[in-house]
Specification:
Structural class: mainly beta
Number of strands: 6
Strand content: 35-45%
Number of helices: 1
Order of helices and strands: EEEEHEE
Shape: extended
Helix content: under 10%
Distance between the termini: 42 Å
């Protein structure tokens, strides 16, 4: 058994690049969008100072996900992405073999608020033709402390009667 799954929440580093492939096919061109996504880990070091470590991920979205990226994703957009890792290799102009690792999207979800200037006229969800895109959920804080509530008390157990039972040496 094997598993290749990536889940990321981060901000888009630059406006996506959208390309069209297979322009000779009868169904039209296949759309592919690529962009970078930054994820930042924040922690405190031994001296109590806050440190940040930012990782940059290469993201590739195909077909319907590429449509959503083209319409709604721009530099700074916060996204949730589920996908899988893919490593490609090629030979560059000088004859050196190069490698790149990308996250190929399976699920793409917009997070955060709409940018300023996009009022009610801007669509909040993807078109119905994009089944892999999920409608954004309302933004919630990452951590919500549990609300104080009355403790759950189980009902009292019914009394147990030994009447009609033989003498067993079993402890249960």
């Amino acid at each position: 058994m094997s598993l290749n799954k990536v889940m990321l929440i981060g901000n888009v580093g630059q406006d996506p690049s959208v390309r069209y492939l297979d322009q000779n096919s009868a169904q039209g061109a296949t759309k592919v969008a690529s962009f970078t996504l930054a994820t930042t880990e924040r922690y405190r070091d031994r001296n109590g100072e806050t440190r940040e470590n930012t990782e940059w991920h290469n993201i590739v979205a195909w077909r319907n996900n590429a449509d959503v990226v083209e319409r709604f994703v721009h530099k700074g957009t916060q996204l949730y992405i589920e996908g899988r890792l893919r490593t490609r290799s090629w030979t560059d102009q000088t004859g050196n073999k190069r490698y790149t690792t990308e996250v190929v999207t399976d699920t793409l979800q917009l997070l955060g608020r709409r940018p300023d200037g996009q009022g009610e006229s801007a669509p909040a969800t993807a078109p119905a033709a994009a089944p892999a895109f999920q409608q954004p959920r309302p933004q919630q804080p990452a951590y919500q402390p549990a609300q104080a509530s009355a403790p759950v008390v189980p009902p009292p157990a019914a009394p147990v009667s030994d009447a009609g039972q033989g003498d067993d040496d079993l402890p249960f």
